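[step 3/7] fold_predict: job queued, chain A
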Amino acid sequence: MNAGSVPSADSLQTSAPRLAGLAIGEAGAAGCREYLSLPGASPFHVPDTAVDGVSSVGIELRAAATRGISHRAHREPRQDAYGFDLGEDWAAFAVADGLGSQVDSQLSSHLAVQLAVTAASAALLGGHDPDWASIFGEVSAAIETSLPRAAKGTTLTIAALRRESVNWLVSIGSLGDSRAAILRDGTWCGVADPPKDHNELASSVTEALPVRDLDRVRAGNGLLVPGQVLALFSDGIGAAFGKGSGVVGAHLAQWWQTAPPLLDFAAQVSFQRRGFHDDRSAVVVWNTGPDAVAGRPKSTDSQEGESEALNSADPSPGSEWRP
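[step 4/7] structure written:
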């Protein structure tokens, strides 16, 4: 889209009521303007906001994706996506961030989470950890062969969990700048982070699918003990999060000590902070400990909504994927 043909984010405002935002530090433009939240102009429409929650044996899960204020202002679609699946003693979930340089990359991100979660779930049900190189290769090939050029390009980070007694064994696969981190005793610890000598700031190119060199896929492992939290999130959060030792990491650690209600979680993912206007997606799981291992009925709540009013709705084509 030609940025010169549409108003800037700071020029769009309306007197219509909106949900109060959660600010971390200075809210910037998001805190002082009332932004129009019109449907995206792309024919490949996805909801502005999606949020889900699941309670199961030994685990709580929350997931949300929201359109950034820059995309709202320019009537561009949300390009972030998430997906998840879980059973009695396993879980698989993913986040993906479509490249902003590709006008319909939301197709890549939604396809990536669907295929990756399906493949990881099949591996876990078969009793073994996922082969990340193989899975990323399959997703890459599907994006390359099935989508138009303007839709190709997405990061992908996926987690596969297997329950072992009261703990969860964690395996992470990642390509691009989406992130995974475990919250231990109030401190965030990255999993499968880029190597220390990796500097994407020196380049305007984000590693993304489709990819030819599968050696670029990062893998990592961890252990989630009772009371700990595992979070996957896109760069819309990760850019502000950094290493997790600053003010954003501290706020998320405080908010996510326990699993929040669904709409609270969506608001937290949508936190306002000066200079950060990108789409946001996150999937967070809590190891709920030994009191939950004995078993309790699994319940699933889901809400999706257009704009900033999160109304219940049936998933439409292109909305968040889950079985």
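[step 5/7] annotate
The longest strand covers residues 156-164.
Residues 1-20, 197-203, 293-319 have pLDDT under 50 and may be disordered.
exit 0
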